[in-house]
Structures are given as structure tokens and as C-alpha cells.
Amino acid sequence: MIEFLSQSWPWYVTGPLLGLMVPLLLVLGNKQFGVSSSLQHICAATMPLKANYFRYNWRDQAWNLALVAGVIAGAVLAVVLLDGNSAPAITDRAQDLFASWGLAAADSLQPVELFALSNLFSVRTLVALLFGGFLVGFGARYAGGCTSGHAVMGLSLLNLGSLVSVIGFFIGGLLVSHLVVPFIMAL
Amino acid sequence: MSSTTTAGTTGTIRLGALLKFFVIGVYFGIVLIKGEVISWFRIQEMFHFRSFYMYGVLGSAVAVGVLSVALIKAFNLRAVDGAQIKLAGKPFNRIGNLAGGIIFGFGWALTGACPGPLYALLGAGYWAVLLAVAGALAGTVAYGYLKPSLPH
Questions:
Q1: Is B124:B33 a contact under the CB 8 Å cutoff?
Q2: Per residue in A135-174, pLDDT tens?
Q3: Domain span including residue A48
Q4: Which of A92, A172, B21, B137 could form a disulfide bond with A66, CB atoms 3.0-4.6 angstroms apart?
């Protein structure tokens, strides 16, 4: 079992297991799946912010913080027990693309060029992670959800606003992945 | 933090009630890591159409979600506490959904991670992700202050 779980999973295993988050949270907790609202709750809980957006009782939403704490713990387990940080099974065509951007072949989930601590304050890492993270937080809250809340939960409810958001995710992602990321990686 | 107050009291945190969400989160974290959907390589591979993998993952995840919601409706299933399951979607904001979505997409491609993966990558020991988490919190603060003046 452990050996089976430790291998790379095909899409038709990963996808349905992710989709099960919808009924698990609805039936066991009567909550709609979503992750990015945790960012708002963390801000409301830890910072003295005056804006109305942060003036509510975040404790009522503590379930969402428990969920993301669980995600961190689950990731630790996956890496320690299930060989979770091995190189992803990307296609040769993807390998060729990344090599053309000057990246070393993948030997773990993330490229050393971005995530190695020795590169932490390079322009490349600051733009990709710090500025990219800013856009993730700002955009997710402006759209009212992220890949979890809109793409998985919202589309499961056949919700129009979620569909528009997901179209936005891909417009933005395609533009930046094609026009900006190759140049960032060459910095 | 109180763990012994009466059920239903707002403004308090009951750790026992939170345990199931923590456990569901553990499950989610394992799937995110083992499914490789938190990998920068997988995200760029998806945006450059170099593999079907991520599209298959998203499509089959939504299929399971749609089916689950349909079953809950068809059989009028209740949550474990006996309450009616809340299935109302989020409100449609023409500009907010699209503009926010596009901005989120920019960040998704730059970092190779969305919010769930940010937490999972911390657990996987990628400390550089703290930069992205700090950025995401700053972005949330910026949105919170700009919200009244942004079109939605």
C-alpha cells in the first residue's frame, strides 16, 4: 500500500481524490471548500487592520484555519512517509521547454533556480515569489476565491461567477506563463 | 481560546469541533503533494500545453464535485449534524470575478502555486515559499483597503 501510494499518481487518481474534498466538507462539516479566505482570516487575526474587510469575528471561520493547518501537516507526512518530494513525472516535451529556459533537470517538486535558499534574494526569486504571491493574494480576494473555491467548489455548484473567475485564472496564467516566465527564469 | 463553551456560541474556538477540518486538511495536503499539483513544473507544463495531466486532474475533480452535489440534491442528503447542506454559490461580480481572476492567474503562473499549494509547500520544507506567503498576505491587506474603491 505504502509502495503504491509512493509512486507518481495518474491524473484519474489525483483528480477524483481532489474532487472528494467537495462532499467531504459538505457532508462532514457543512462547509464549502475554499482556501484563499484563510488569508483574510490570518490578516484579521494577527494584524491591527482598520479596514472593514478585516473587522469581523475571524473565530467564526476558524474551521478554515484548521483546514490549512492540516494541509501543512499532510504535506509533511506525504514528504516523509510517501516520498512526496521526488521529481514530478512531467513529459519530455515539458523537459525540453524548461531546458530551453536554462533550467537544470527536475530532481524535486520545485526548480532550484527559484526555490533554493541561496537564490532567495535574487531578482528572479523576488519577482516570481514575493510579487507573484502578492498577485495571488490580491487576485484571489478580488475574485472571491481561488482554484479551490472557484475552480473545484464553484464549478461543482455550476456557479456563473466561478466560471468567469476560472476563465480569468487561465487568461492571466497563459499570458504570464508564455510572455513573462521565460524571461524571469533567464534573469 | 476556550474549548469548553456551549455549542453554537459565536466568537469562541472549540478545538474539538476543529479536529475534523484539520484531518480533512491532512488528506488534502497529501493529495496536493502526491498529485504533484503544487509543482511549479506541473503548472508551467499545463500553461504550455505540454501534458494533459493537469487538465485531467481539474476536469475529473470537477466531475466528482458536480456528481457529489447532484447526489446531495437528489437524495436531499443532510450533513452529519442533521442540518440542511448549504449549496448557495458565491455572488456573481462581473468585474471582480474577471479582473480578480486574471490578476490571480498572473500570480499563479509567476509562483507556480495557488493558495492551497502555498501551505503545502511550507509543509514540504520549501522555506522560500515564505516569500510568496508574505506576498499573498500583503496582497490580501492591499485588497482589503482598496475594496471600497475598486469596481466589482
A1: yes
A2: 999 999 999 999 999 999 999 999 999 999 999 999 999 9
A3: 1-85
A4: B21
